Amino acid sequence: MERFSVTYALLADDLNEARRKAFDICVEQTVEFPYDLIPNAYIQTEIVGHIESLDTLAPGRFRAVISYHEDTAGTDFTQFLNVLFGNTSIKPGVRVDAFTLTPMQLATFTGPRFGVAGLRARTGVVGRPLLCSALKPLGLDCHALADIAYRFALGGIDVIKDDHGLANQRYAPFEERVARCAEAVQRANAETGGNCLYLPNVTADDGYTLTRARFAQQAGAGAVIISGALTGFDTLRAVAGDDQVNLPVFMHPAFSGSFTVAPDAGFSHFAFYGQLMRLAGADAVIFPNYGGRFSFSREECAAIAQGCRCNMGSLRSALPAPGGGMNFENIGDMVAFYGSDAIFLIGGGLFRHNPDITEGVRTLRRLLEQCLEA
Amino acid sequence: MERFSVTYALLADDLNEARRKAFDICVEQTVEFPYDLIPNAYIQTEIVGHIESLDTLAPGRFRAVISYHEDTAGTDFTQFLNVLFGNTSIKPGVRVDAFTLTPMQLATFTGPRFGVAGLRARTGVVGRPLLCSALKPLGLDCHALADIAYRFALGGIDVIKDDHGLANQRYAPFEERVARCAEAVQRANAETGGNCLYLPNVTADDGYTLTRARFAQQAGAGAVIISGALTGFDTLRAVAGDDQVNLPVFMHPAFSGSFTVAPDAGFSHFAFYGQLMRLAGADAVIFPNYGGRFSFSREECAAIAQGCRCNMGSLRSALPAPGGGMNFENIGDMVAFYGSDAIFLIGGGLFRHNPDITEGVRTLRRLLEQCLEA
Fold first, then answer.
1. Which of A36, A247, B103, B212 could join B202 via S-S bond, C-beta 3.0 to 4.6 A?
2. Cα torsion at B269, B270, B271, B275 (round to 10°)?
């Protein structure tokens, strides 16, 4: 039997306190029981977590690597998350920085179904980042949203997503919206010869996310977008692994901000938006770009991209999809920063640039080509 | 059409910046689109959030009450959460402190199915707090766990929960464990004439939580426990509203710590563990008690109890269920602090007190009676 390991960042007064805190994690995340009262040696030595290493990073800051027997989690993804950070999430001064997995876990939680190559194959885009925009604002009816989708696709955008606030509201009910927008994008693709993908937001209540994803597939959507913190993260896996759906899955960060908002608690950006969302099956991970109206730093954005791409055994890479704050001026910087294997989301900036959004997309595509030639 | 409102705590340099931040929330949580480009007056005036009030709480601290048209959320609980805090969760310096609901929302999200009176009716406990312990440690087999359950129930404990780390591991598979533990508690009830409830942990991957809850009901469980941050919060509602299950739902806080760990981001304890979990259908909300190995303060615990009990229109009250750090010495303080409508969880302290856990429960029950007589 194998063990998986988790790297935690700890705040503590000194190495002794750090060691005590690390041992508390070993117990809290497994038996949650007084160590000296544990009734058998197997549980004490195998089930309780092991401190594999403990290092001082800076005064008051430590790094503990703790390993857990893979049997503590078994094959439930929810229970894997629980061993990773269940009760310890409630303790301040502990952050999940990274994790490794066992071969059994990698065979069970298979990650992205499409990954970078699969998304490139579906869109036909090679050698450059993909461009994505969003259908908005909330409050428009299905005809108006489909018209925007058509005009975006005509300009040559690669991916068009529903704004994450489009759910099943009465002014644009889910099924009608998805059918009309998918048809509009297919109509534009027929005119341009392109392969623009329409991504409906299928985030919904318990059980219904999968239902909506299946409807989206039937209606001709090219991929789906799910806010995993709203549905539960395993719902990404359920959709990513569903043979009826068989579409790329984009993770949207709505409601997930609390997981990385505190510097010394929750998750590192690398572990949460990178490793964890990829393990949950996201082919692309949307997150707030540096320099926009959110507060992620360049370092945090780089860490997310790294988490999407780092070696995780047999898992495919995901595409980092920075959004928020992209405009016609900073596209060159983004290409230099994220490289080619990324998706750039531009929403408000595209509407702002030119009331003719088809022309706006064409300009953006030209700008992108120029950046790549430079 | 009615509007619901959310009270946000904001950090800002001055009132002008606070007003700008509040307006940003109005836009971000709804249209996520440049306000001046919004294509029609209805969306601008009705769909975009309204700042209902803005107050200075202290230098640099403000309170904004923002109302949203109920149509922005519709009837999806996930989309209600999204309007409440979706993208704004990613911005530091904004916290959800409280919310109110419209009559349509209260009719849709019906909250606890049993509530305080229903849980008292199921357990037969009147006039005092309920006592709950946990089956542990992880790593024991089904026979050993069922034996612990039997001995707890024989002593007169009111509720016995699976430790939240018991999922479907190979040393105690879910179905066998639940069947054996439910049978053991029923056997003890037959001997004592009591109504002890066994609460299996049904937290599972997408779709399977409901499946496990239905199995638990068939096997004779008295209620179920779900870690909503692992399953997605709407899964609580799905189980609470399922007519095949028809069992009280306990919310466990595993993996939820990030939502309240930062003082100026995420949720207040009142809003998250109180209002929101109750709205999601929790009949009882487990949270870390003050003074134990977690860090919730007395004020934060009082706020959770208040959120479980405050007036929320037609919603039943939930029972606050503080756990962690309860022992034989502080039960009097807990009775004084939480009052009678609460569930006290004692795990390690009960095993620590006396190797004969049946006697330990009897002692605890006597101590509780003495506190109430005093």
1. B212
2. 130
Residue among A230, A237, A301, A356 with most chain B CBs within 10 A, to mutate? A230
A89 to each of A8, A86, B225, how far by Cα in Å? 11, 6, 18
Residue contact A230–B232, C-beta within 8 A: yes
- B:83-112 residues touching chain A, CB 8 A cutoff: 83, 85-92
The DSSP symbol for A310 reads S
Residue B157: phi and psi, rounded to 5, are: -70, 150
Split at pLDDT 50, 70, 90, the class of B292 is confident
Measure in Å the smallest separation between the Cα of B261 and chain A Cα atoms. 6
Q: Using CB atoms, which residue from B168, B233, B347 is nearest to A76?
A: B168
For A374, residues 6+ apart whose C-beta sits below 8 A from its C-beta are A332
Residue with tokens 């780390």: B165
pLDDT digit string, tens, across residues A33-83: 999 999 999 999 999 999 999 999 999 999 999 999 999 999 999 999 999
On whether the CB atoms of residues B183 and B221 are closer than 8 A, the answer is: no
> Under 8 Å CB-to-CB from B5, ≥6 apart: which residues?
B52, B65, B66, B67, B68, B99, B100
With an 8 Å Cβ cutoff, are B165 and A24 in contact? no
Q: Is B43 on the interface with A (CB under 8 A)?
A: yes
* CB–CB contact A205 B92 (8 Å): no
Q: What is the pLDDT of residues A169-187, one digit of tens each?
A: 999 999 999 999 999 999 9
Helical (H) or strand (E) element with B226: strand B224-226
Cα–Cα distance measured from residue A333 to residue A286, given in angstroms and rounded to the nearest whole number: 18
What ipTM score was computed for the predicted complex, to two decimals? 0.97
Q: Is the dihedral of CA A142, A143, A144, A149 positive or negative?
A: positive
Residue A345 has which token pair?
């989301």
A225 reaches B (C-beta below 8 A) = no
A-chain residue closest to B263, CA distance: A262
Cα–Cα distance, B335 to B320 (Å, whole number)? 12
Q: pTM score, two decimals?
A: 0.98
Q: B294: pLDDT confidence band, cut at 50, 70 and 90?
A: confident
C-alpha closest to that of A87 among B177, B319, B338, B293: B293
Q: Is the CB of B351 less than 8 angstroms away from the CB of A34?
A: yes
What does pLDDT average to over chain A? Answer: 96
Q: Given a cut of 90, is residue B373 above it in pLDDT?
A: no
